[in-house]
Every structure is written in C-alpha cells, then in structure tokens.
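Ops channel
N.P.: pipeline sanity check, posting one input/output pair.
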C-alpha cells in the first residue's frame, strides 16, 4: 500500500475524527519527527489524543472503519519504515501526563499517566527522597513505553516497582492489571495484544535524598561513559543474549564503525546504531541484518532485536 497524501485526508473517517473533542488529527505526518533516531516515513493518520475521554471514542471509530493502528510513546525504542505506517498512529497527550503522589509510612504510591516522561519521574522521586527508580535516569521514554518494554538498566527493571497498570483494550473498554496478574520478562510486559496503557502505579521507598541523588549521579556517569552521544539513535538495537552482551558480540565480530548510507554501528557502543544525518530506516535495518548474520556465523548466537520495527517494510519480518 502506498502512503496516504495530505490532500486525500478529507474522508468521512477524518471528518468523524475531527468531531471528537480533545483529538488532534494529522494526515501524512512524517514519523521521523516523533522518533529519537529521527527516521521514519509518514503515518496515514497521526492521532494525538489530548483528553482521556477522547480515547475510547477514537478506538471505537477505528474499529468501526477497520483502520489498523499502533501506539507511539516517545519513539525512543522504535524503528519506523521509510514507507511509514499504514492506518493510524496514536500518541497520548496532555491529560495522560498527570501524576499523583500518595506518600504514607515510608513509601509512596505514584500513579503516572502513560505519556509522563520517565526521566521527569526519576527526578521528582530524587527530589522527594524516594528510591526505586534511580536505574531509569537517562531512559528517554514515556511511562507507558517503559512499562510495555519492561525498561531496565544496571540490574533493575520497572517490573520491580509496578503495582498496577490501567489501560484500554483495542475496542476502547477499560482494563486494569494488578502486579500479581502480570508476567514480565526481559524487555517485555506481555500485555494482551492491542492493550493501550493509560496509567501506571509504582511503589517507591523513602530513603535519604542525598543517597538517592548519589546513586542517580553514579549511574548517569556510567551511562555517559558507555553510550554514544551527539547522534540520534534508538538505544540498544538487540537484546543481550543469556550470559553475554549484544554489544560485545557485535564488536568482537569487527563491526564497530561499520556504515551503510548515513547509518553507523556506533564506535562508542556496538549495540547502538546512530543516524549520522539523513540515514534511512532501510540502512539501519541492513546494518542490523549484517550484525545478526556476522554474530551468528562467528559465535552461533542468534541476536534478537530489542528495538521494535513499526510500519510497512519492503522485506518480510516486520510490521506493527
Ligand atoms: C539513548 C537511549 C538510551 C536508552 N536506554 C535504555 C535503557 O537503559 N534501558 C531500556 O530498557 N531502554 C532504553 N532505551 C530504549 C527506550 O528508551 C525504552 O525502551 C523506553 O521505555 C521506550 O519508551 P517510549 O515511550 O519511547 O516507547 P516507544 O519507543 O514509543 O514504544 C515502544 C513500544 O511500546 C509501545 N507503547 C508505547 N507507549 C504505549 C502505551 N501507552 N500503551 C501501549 N503500548 C505503548 C509501542 O507501541 C512500542 O511497541 C534507550 C533509548 C535511547 C534512545
């Protein structure tokens, strides 16, 4: 399917969308504007849901018109095809950035909207002297994206602090999952397909403010030493295989600094691919294929992508 052009956007479907209060509709929106690696073709419909009440209405409309959709957080773990995404891409806006703190007896239950930035949450916890989220400083995602990906670093993951997740099904019905009903694994939260996360409640423990600050600063220093800065990227491209590191394997395969087009396997950390300016999604994907093939050939290890591929790809194994 070819991408939809802006002038093709005035259909009955779009007219109905435009009647939903608290929804911004853009047709043919380039997704490169919304991904941390600054790559990605257009979404047919880019739907920014500003108000909570608009979300079920949007989902019901998509269902009625049989328009496929996918969800974008802050786009920091996503590689969008150069052809973009057919159907709708939903992003949560202002009313999904609210936060509530319930502080009691040495702990805090913090309920954050899915669009709330993770680093902002880390810094608030640090200011208030609560521990549990230090690992997440420097993870440039949203709370919803972090939950879905079971984001983690330096031996901790979000699953360790989750209490409850609220969301809606793909048909717009409300759902809730308490921690004991959820199964997390490395970089996955195994929510039912199509679940859209709207709020996440986490438990943090009271600590000395200086201690929390110290730990955050220590981890920031570690992160700065090991990760590339200066060029847009999507974080780690591959999951670490059991007992090893994807970056170590790719480096040992001699691929550090390897370029295709304007994409490069980072000289700093071989599990990062950076956009040197003007890189195509296809360049990144070919570098990923090269890394997979070379690591398989040399070490008989099959690397699995951590980054989620989104959209319409010319070759087989991707899509939303
Ligand atoms: C420089 C850099 C460093 C990073 N470091 C780390 C790290 O240390 N540890 C780590 O784990 N990750 C890291 N990442 C990857 C990324 O930041 C995390 O995976 C982050 O949690 C993704 O959040 P996001 O909001 O950007 O989600 P997106 O990338 O937008 O989406 C990721 C997935 O979540 C889904 N999703 C997003 N929001 C919702 C929602 N509300 N409901 C349902 N599904 C949703 C999307 O459909 C997609 O499948 C890093 C990335 C960068 C660029």
């Amino acid at each position: 399917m070819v991408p939809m052009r802006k002038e093709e956007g005035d259909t009955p479907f779009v007219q109905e969308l435009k009647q939903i209060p608290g929804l911004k509709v853009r047709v043919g929106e380039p997704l490169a504007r919304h991904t941390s690696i600054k790559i990605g073709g257009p979404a047919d419909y880019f739907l920014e849901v500003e108000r909570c009440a608009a979300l079920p209405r949007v989902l019901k409309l998509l269902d009625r018109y049989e328009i496929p959709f996918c969800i974008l957080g802050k786009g920091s773990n996503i590689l969008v095809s150069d052809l973009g995404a057919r159907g709708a891409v939903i992003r949560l806006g202002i009313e999904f950035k609210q936060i509530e703190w319930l502080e009691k007896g040495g702990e805090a239950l913090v309920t954050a909207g899915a669009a709330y930035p993770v680093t902002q949450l880390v810094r608030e916890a640090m200011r208030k002297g609560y521990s549990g989220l230090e690992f997440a400083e420097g993870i440039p995602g949203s709370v919803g994206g972090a939950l879905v990906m079971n984001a983690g670093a330096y031996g901790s993951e979000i699953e360790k602090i989750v209490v409850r997740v609220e969301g809606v099904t793909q048909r717009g019905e409300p759902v809730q999952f308490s921690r004991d009903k959820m199964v997390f694994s490395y970089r996955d939260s195994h929510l039912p397909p199509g679940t859209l996360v709207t709020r996440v409640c986490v438990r943090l423990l009271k600590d000395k403010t200086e201690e929390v600050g110290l730990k955050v600063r220590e981890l920031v220093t570690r992160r700065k030493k090991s990760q590339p800065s200066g060029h847009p990227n999507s974080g780690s491209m591959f999951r670490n295989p059991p007992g090893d590191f994807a970056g170590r394997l790719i480096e040992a395969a001699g691929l550090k600094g390897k370029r295709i087009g304007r994409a490069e396997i980072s000289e700093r950390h071989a599990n990062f691919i950076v956009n040197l300016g003007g890189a195509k999604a296809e360049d990144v994907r070919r570098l990923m294929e090269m890394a997979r093939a070379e690591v398989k050939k040399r070490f008989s290890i099959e690397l699995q992508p951590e980054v989620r591929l989104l959209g319409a790809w010319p070759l087989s194994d991707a899509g939303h």
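N.P.: looks fine end to end. The chain has seven helices and 17 strands.
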